[in-house]
């Protein structure tokens, strides 16, 4: 950009110099022709004793006139050159503005593109994770395991069975993972809701609460302490999902 401005300035100055030279030459020729015509006319129409100026005086006045015209043209040329220099300096001083503007625009565009791309990738990952949960939940064996765990929670006697309690812990951990992903914005929650997984998690928590209270009423059943510990220390996200998600 700076080189282009300097080249344009040089061309402008050369053109101006050519115009000035032509103007000086024309003025000089015009004044000489006028002096010759005046001398010829005086020689034809007037006697020699009426001549007011000699040839040397006329040439001297023409030289003075040429000098005056040349001085004016030089002054105009100098003024134009000063303005061109000032304009060139101004353009050189502001060369960085387009560069900065381009850099800012590029940064904004890059940030916007990255933001859109990241959001798209996050939504895609959330949908894939949600589909994995739904697929696991729809598995026949897993669906049966959840049903058996719900039945275990309705019977304090079955809770005493280690296998039954182990099954409850396994199902509860799965719902805890679902709730953790939900709370961490890693799920497509609308997809999860359409498949009713949140209501199954809430139903499991509700059964868990009922089982804990039933065990507390039965002093011979120690499972109330185990269930309370699971709820307090291990299934906090599941509790949040059961009490905050509608």
Automatic annotation (TrEMBL):
This is Uncharacterized protein. Residues 1-22 form the signal peptide. The keyword Membrane applies. Keywords: Membrane, Signal, Transmembrane, Transmembrane helix. Pfam families: DUF4760 (PF15956). InterPro entries: DUF4760. The chain crosses the membrane at residues 95-113. It comes from Paraburkholderia denitrificans.
């Amino acid at each position: 950009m700076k080189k282009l401005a300097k080249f344009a300035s040089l061309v402008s100055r050369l053109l101006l110099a050519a115009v000035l030279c032509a103007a000086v030459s024309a003025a000089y020729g015009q004044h000489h022709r006028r002096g010759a015509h005046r001398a010829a006319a005086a020689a034809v129409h007037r006697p020699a004793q009426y001549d007011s100026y000699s040839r040397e005086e006329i040439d001297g006045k023409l030289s003075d006139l040429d000098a005056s015209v040349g001085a004016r043209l030089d002054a105009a040329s100098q003024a134009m050159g000063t303005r061109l220099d000032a304009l060139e300096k101004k353009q050189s001083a502001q060369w960085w503005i387009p560069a900065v503007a381009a850099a800012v625009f590029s940064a904004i565009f890059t940030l916007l593109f990255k933001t859109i791309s990241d959001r798209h990738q996050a939504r895609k990952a959330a949908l894939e994770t949600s589909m994995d949960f739904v697929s696991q939940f729809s598995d026949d064996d897993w669906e049966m395991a959840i049903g058996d765990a719900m039945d275990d929670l309705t019977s304090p006697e079955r809770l005493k069975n280690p296998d039954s309690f182990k099954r409850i812990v396994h199902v509860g951990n799965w719902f805890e993972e679902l709730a953790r992903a939900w709370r961490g914005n890693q799920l497509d929650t609308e997809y999860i809701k359409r498949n009713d997984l949140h209501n199954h998690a809430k139903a499991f928590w509700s059964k868990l609460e009922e089982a804990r209270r039933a065990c507390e009423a039965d002093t011979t059943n120690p499972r109330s302490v185990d269930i309370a510990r699971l709820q307090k220390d291990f299934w906090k996200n599941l509790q949040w999902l059961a009490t905050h998600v509608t």
